[in-house]
Hints:
- The chain is mostly helical.
- It has one domain (2-43).
- It is built from 2 helices and no strands.
- The longest helix has 22 residues, at 2-23.
- The radius of gyration is 18 Å and the shape is elongated.
- The termini are far apart.
- The model has no long low-confidence stretch (mean pLDDT 83).
Amino acid sequence: MNIAFALFYLVYTFVLNWLYDVIFPIEEKATGDVSEAGEREAAR
């Protein structure tokens, strides 16, 4: 029974995270700006 609860919550968490990523995707511009800023800082 404990394994059933663990498996249920693993699947539940995976589906919840997947749906959240579908509904609220990370914008490419935002991640690109951060990585470019990081590259500029590393080049200094």
